[in-house]
Design goal:
The structure holds two protein chains of two kinds.
Chain A: H1 15-19, E1 38-44, E2 50-56, H2 58-61, E3 66-70, H3 72-78, E4 108-109, E5 115-121, H4 124-133, E6 135-140, H5 147-152, E7 165-173, H6 176-182, E8 185-193, E9 205-211, E10 216-221, H7 226-237, E11 244-247, H8 264-276, E12 280-283, H9 286-292, E13 299-307, E14 313-323, H10 333-341, E15 351-358, H11 373-391, H12 395-402, E16 411-416, E17 422-425, H13 430-441, H14 446-455, E18 459-471, E19 477-483, E20 489-493, H15 502-514, E21 521-525, H16 542-569, E22 576-579, E23 582-585, E24 588-594, H17 595-601, H18 611-616, E25 638-643, E26 649-661, E27 668-678, H19 685-705, E28 737-741, H20 763-775, E29 786-787, H21 791-800
Parallel strand pairs in A: 1-12, 8-29, 10-11, 14-15, 20-21, 27-28
Antiparallel strand pairs in A: 1-5, 2-4, 2-6, 3-5, 7-15, 8-13, 9-10, 9-12, 13-14, 16-17, 18-26, 19-20, 19-25, 22-23, 23-24, 26-27
Chain B: E1 5-12, E2 15-22, H1 27-34, E3 53-56, E4 59-62, E5 75-77, H2 91-99, H3 108-121, H4 127-133, H5 145-165
Parallel strand pairs in B: 1-5
Antiparallel strand pairs in B: 1-2, 3-4, 3-5
Classes of the chains: A alpha+beta, B alpha+beta.
The structure holds FE2/S2 (inorganic) cluster (FES) (2 copies).
């Protein structure tokens, strides 16, 4: 009997090619035979806000090796829709003033880094030379940088957007203001979170080739949504969808930034490929990534809370201001998530949340791993800590009294979630998680440890933060499973992959369902030629959505296998089993047939191409009096299915950290990091833990180091890895203790929930709590309200709060 | 704007390549785009991320900080040259696979080359030394936990291989 692979630490199949240097990322495409390849570079605005008076490309036009120089004025002539603004992907009724940029700036630029001109040349060096020769005259306009400036609205980002307010959205459950008024205790908090960014090691990139022989465009792009790019390219270039293929090869990390689409270059590169009849490539460099790809996180929050003597929430009133940058191509997803996921594992009974999403003259904001949840978790968990401090209670106890209890699921929070559906939690067990995290981090023993350390002149602090994560949002994903005559199984799903091990976990599911060897399953993701209907990889949805679809598709293929094999073996389908790719009659191993042979039988084509076909001739299948392919059947051994859930599934978790702060330098050191995580049934624990590790590292970065340092003129001062401090191994905890809880989701056949973002959600909250705890030993009034926090900021806080 | 081109002969992974490049062509670009050795990745082009690390005469170097013309007369090793002669994975590669030391794989070539040289110089690193060995390379995916494990596992595998090799020559597979 084959052992079930679901739940096993199966080693990744994709590793082989990565370890040998045979990965295929977008910038690797077209390299062999590269004489045909042309390279693009983009002229970007040096100003955060300016009117473009004139663009002079004269000095570039006749440069040797330069093939095209385009500005906005050229676009309409190349494809009429290209002259229109880029699409607003996710409209929302509250987004009353949505604005998107043009592929190349039209009369005005709204952030330093906005694309102005596009050059195609023999190589990137020449293209950059050419970009450097383009002369633009600007009339600088007053820039709006940061949330405070946006709210003051002394200057406007877009003349026709009053108050710089792109959207205002309010949701209410019960009557929070009244409940707070009536509560025995109240508190208010003002919090801020800085901007950071996904910063995958591979930036954006696109390659396109137009094939005049078949009238088709092929696009390779480093995206989280191949089908999305396909649709955008088709519309913008005036092509039929059927003329565009989008292939997403290996992707060097995404973390959200590659879900936004189309980026200007994703349209300009295919446009150039068609116009020039040559393969064209754009590979973003690091500085470009900082100044022209999206950021996230920046928020200012005001919280009012009312509670009873036990710390039980009676009313919660949250107001926040979200910095969405210069444009809103991805709609309100991020602030909507903050406003809804803020509630975490708690039930505040009365909740009011209102946000304003504001324009600033900075790079646009789209989801970054966690997508608005880190900010929401920060707001809620800082509130929990503040309540505990006010009441002099244990922080874990205050959380516990507010938990939704295991017997209360499904639990409807009474809000509308990001997917437009009700925010209803499917399952979970928060008290059990709390017990686990307390044990894992040594919560109860910590006060003694803290006193012991204090006696030695060392200050240590502990923090705890809980979250719930809506994962696996719809609308759907699909899968196609094809059993070849060799017995090998080819699986395709449309969503993309950027390092999460999809080729492995999906193969595990197929091997389990079909009873084939894991090595015989090959998975393709993100290729619109193989699966034209798909949504994308984001919101920790891959395992839930594509995993379920693949499971269902494999089931369909299996049904067909059993039907044909039953005919061939003259047995009932229920009496058959498939083990290691062989179908046999249970209990009589002599009567068996290979899957490959079944595949041959499924196709009544009378050519014996191979051994399998020859072998198949010994079985006669079907009734000679009927057509070889029945009316309700089709040739081939395939299964295709889609999975579309009613609503998102809710993973959850708790993190705890112990930090030490230096009494002199205010340096912050991590002594211990612990995670308890519930993503339902695990497909591959090794991969889930890898996701947590990566998330924690990104969280450490966001909490202690990473910030986008804009000056008041809107220049990003730290647009390099030298200045934007991403954690090296020296900055991450040495060891992350992980414990799992598995409360299966009732919403999908595998009982799974997403796991991709969990590691990063509670970081700002948990570090703020731990640092505060360490400092409060001798500065009881010191509160950490702004994240990230650097040693110098902590030092300043100490000066402001003398012992 | 005709650029002067230089004939360069590069020796990479034991193979000699002749190519013509302008003086400003980065070695990383020459490897990737002129020689087709795309295993070496470029994550920053300013010497900070380490993704482009290759071995120059056995020493780890950032190929984005070298010009192709200055690599003449040196022995270069890229990730493509790390596998054993029989095509099997080297101990460092094998350890990465066993320990789940990679996710998107983009930073991986730089880690593999760095660690290969690091273990040659210090075949039995302590845990702290294992962490130090990779302290100059950025990874955005893995959180480094499993990369550190991979360094330690690779050291074990090297030691095992040596144990096997020494007494019984026919035991090699
Ligand atoms: S690409 Fe060379 S160090 Fe980053
Ligand atoms: S595995 Fe993706 S950057 Fe390291």
């Amino acid at each position: 009997m084959t052992t079930k692979l679901m739940g096993q630490k199966v080693q990744r199949v994709e590793d082989q090619r990565f370890l040998r240097g045979q990965g295929r990322y977008v910038d690797d495409v077209g390299v062999s035979g590269s004489t045909q390849l042309l390279h693009a570079a983009v002229l970007r605005s040096p100003h955060a806000h300016a009117r473009i008076l004139d663009i002079d490309v004269e000095a570039v036009l006749d440069l040797e090796g330069v093939h095209a120089v385009w500005t906005y004025d050229d676009l309409a002539g190349l494809a009429a829709p290209m002259a229109e603004p880029l699409p607003l992907l996710i409209p929302h009724p509250a987004l009353t003033h949505g604005r998107t940029q043009y592929a190349l700036a039209r009369d005005e630029v709204n952030y330093a880094g906005e694309a102005i001109a596009f050059v195609v040349a023999d190589d990137r060096y020449l293209a950059e030379d050419a970009v450097g020769r383009i002369r633009v005259s600007y009339e600088p306009l007053p820039p709006v940088v940061g949330i405070d400036a946006a709210r003051e609205a002394r200057a406007l980002v877009h003349e026709d957007v009053p108050g710089n307010i792109g959207a205002r959205l309010e949701q209410n459950v019960g009557d929070a203001p009244a409940a707070i008024k009536a509560a025995p205790h109240t508190l208010s908090l003002d919090l801020t979170v800085e901007r950071s960014a996904c910063t995958p090691l591979e930036g954006r990139g696109t390659v396109a080739r137009w094939d005049p022989d078949i009238n088709r465009l092929q696009v390779w792009t480093s995206t989280q949504s191949s089908t999305g790019v396909r649709a955008a390219v088709a519309v913008k270039l005036g092509l039929d969808l059927g003329q565009v293929d989008v292939i997403t090869p290996d992707v060097g990390g995404g973390f959200g930034v590659k879900i936004n689409h189309p980026w200007p270059e994703e349209l300009l590169v295919p446009l150039a490929a068609r116009a020039l009849g040559r393969t064209v490539k754009f590979t973003e460099d690091r500085r470009e990534h900082f100044i022209s790809s999206a950021h996230e996180r920046g928020q200012v929050q005001h919280i009012e809370v009312g509670f009873d003597d036990d710390g039980r929430l009676l009313g919660l009133d949250v107001e926040f201001w979200h910095d969405h940058g210069a444009y809103t191509p991805y709609g309100l997803i991020v602030p909507i998530i903050t406003s809804t996921q803020l509630l975490g594992p708690y039930k505040p009974h009365n909740y009011r949340v209102v946000f304003e999403s504001l324009y600033t003259n900075t790079v646009m904001v789209t989801p970054y791993r966690g997508a608005g949840r880190p900010q929401g978790c920060y707001a809620m968990e800082r509130t929990m800590d503040a309540i505990a401090a006010y009441l002099g209670k244990d922080r874990a106890d205050v959380r516990a009294v507010n938990f939704i209890q295991p017997d209360e699921f499904p639990f409807d929070q009474g809000l509308i979630f990001q997917d437009g559906r009700e925010l209803e939690y499917d399952s979970g067990d928060y008290p059990a998680s709390l017990e686990k995290i307390k044990a894992l981090v040594g919560w109860d023993e910590f006060p003694a440890f803290q006193r012991e350390m204090a006696a030695q002149g060392r200050r240590v602090g502990i923090g705890l933060a809980c979250y719930v994560e809506g994962t696996g949002v719809g609308p759907y994903e699909g899968a196609h499973v094809h059993i070849e005559t060799s017995g090998k199984v080819k699986v395709a799903t449309g969503l993309t992959t950027q390092g999460q091990g999809h080729a492995t976990v999906f193969a595990q599911l197929v091997a389990d369902e079909l009873g084939v060897k894991f090595e015989d399953v090959e998975v393709v993701t993100g290729d619109t030629r193989r699966m034209a209907y798909a949504v994308g990889t984001f919101a920790s949805r891959a395992a839930v959505m594509s995993g379920s679809a693949i499971h269902l598709a494999a089931k369909r293929a299996k049904e067909k296998v059993l039907k044909i094999a039953a005919d061939a073996l003259e047995a009932a389908p229920e009496d058959l089993e498939i083990v290691d790719g062989v179908v046999s009659v249970k209990g009589s191993p002599g009567a068996s047939i290979d899957l490959g042979t079944v595949s041959v039988l499924s196709n009544p084509l009378r050519y014996a191409f191979d051994e399998a076909s020859k072998a198949a001739t010994q079985f006669s299948v079907g009734d000679p009096g009927k057509p070889p392919v029945a009316e309700d059947d089709e040739p081939g051994l395939e299964g295709k299915d889609f999975y579309s859930p009613e609503r998102a599934t809710f993973a959850s978790g708790m993190h705890a950290v112990i930090v030490e702060t230096d009494p002199e330098t205010a340096e912050i050191k991590i002594l211990k990091y612990a995670v308890v995580h519930d993503c339902g049934h695990l497909i591959n624990p090794m991969i889930v833990e890898g996701q947590i590790h990566g998330g924690v590292a990104q969280g450490v970065g966001g909490a202690l180091y990473e910030r986008m340092a804009y000056d008041e003129s809107g220049q990003l001062l730290n647009a390099s890895f030298m200045d934007f401090l991403m954690p090296y191994v020296t900055e991450v905890p040495d060891g992350i203790d992980i414990d799992h809880l598995e409360t299966p989701s009732p919403l999908n056949p595998l009982g799974i929930k997403g796991a991709g973002e969990a590691g990063v959600i509670p970081s700002a909250a948990v570090f703020a709590a731990a640092i505060e705890d360490a400092e409060r030993v001798d500065r009881p009034a010191l509160a950490i309200t702004a994240m990230p926090i650097s040693p110098s900021e902590l030092y300043t806080l100490r000066q402001e709060h003398p012992r | 704007m005709t650029e002067e081109l230089h004939d360069v002969r590069l020796s990479v992974n034991g193979t000699t390549y002749d190519t013509r490049v302008p003086a400003r062509r980065l070695l990383s670009d020459a490897l990737r785009h002129d020689l087709g050795l795309t295993g070496t990745h470029v994550g920053c082009e300013h010497g900070v991320c380490g993704a482009c690390t290759i071995l120059v005469d056995g020493e780890p170097m950032r190929s984005c900080l070298m010009f192709a013309v200055s690599a003449v007369d040196h022995e270069l090793t890229t990730v493509e040259g790390l596998t054993n002669e029989d095509g099997s994975l080297s101990p460092v590669q094998q350890a990465f696979s066993e320990c789940h030391g990679l996710q998107c794989g983009f930073c991986t070539p730089g880690f593999l080359t760095t660690i290969t040289a690091g273990l040659r110089d210090n075949p039995t690193p302590t845990h702290e030394e294992a962490r130090d060995m990779i302290a100059g390379n950025l990874c955005r995916c893995t959180g480094y936990q499993n990369i550190v494990k991979a360094v330690e596992r690779a050291a074990e595998l090297v030691e095992l291989a040596e144990l096997v090799e020494t007494p019984a020559p026919e035991a090699g597979r």
